[in-house]
Amino acid sequence: MTDRTTYVTLAGLRERGWTDAMVSRLLGEPDVQGRDPRRWSLAPVRLFLLARVQAVARTPEFVRCAAAAGRCPSATEEGAERRRRAVMAAIRAEPIEVPRLPASELERRAVRHRHLLGARGPGEAAAGALVRWQVSYLRHALARYDALLDGLYGATGRAEAERLLRLRLYEAIAAAYPALERECRRRIGAER
Which residues pair with 49 in a beta bridge? Predict the structure, then answer.
């Protein structure tokens, strides 16, 4: 019987970033092959000696194959960093166009937006509520800029890019509507 801690299955190799082509080219035949006694399957279990796998993974040939297959961790990290920098540059360069509305129309739309979201109750009587609603409405009206975040997946720079985008949007709202500047600054400060 084999010690499972000293061997790696084909599935285990795939989890480590190996492709089937890399396994056949660099490792060749498995060190142990046979049927899995725990389940009925026609497919044989192929086990590779962990020490041999680790030795091959340190070779320059493995690094070249992994990079060519796009499985090399450093190549993946470089690609993610490149995408992050490109998205951050796009967010910084994109001109933010805030819709310019007369004060009465902005108030009407903000109240309607608030009610469409299902908000009811004592919030309407709170001081400064209309200003908060106006900023919320304008932020919603600028939601199309969220598409700038496309291309960032997972955690790689996404939170930083979202913060920068919100900062730029609130600054644009404050510039377009000076009466809303204080609320925009409050929201920017709350996010830091």
Answer: 7
Residue 41 has what DSSP assignment? Answer: -
| The pTM of the whole model exceeds 0.90 | no
Q: Do the beta carbons of residue 157 and residue 165 sit within 8 Å?
A: no
Specify the long-range contacts of residues 98-106, CB closer than 8 Å, at least 24 apart. 98/138, 98/141, 98/142, 98/172, 98/173, 98/175, 98/176, 98/177, 99/138, 99/141, 100/176, 103/179, 106/134, 106/137, 106/138, 106/177
In angstroms, the Cα distances linking 162 to 6, 50, 99, 158 are 44, 42, 21, 6
Eight-state DSSP code of residue 26: I
Q: For 20-64, write each residue's pLDDT tens digit.
A: 888 888 888 888 887 766 666 666 788 888 889 888 888 888 888
Long-range pairs for 181-189 at CB < 8 Å and ≥24 separation? 182/131, 183/128, 183/131, 183/132, 183/134, 183/135, 184/135, 187/135
Measuring CA to CA, which residue among 23, 79, 81 is closest to residue 48?
23
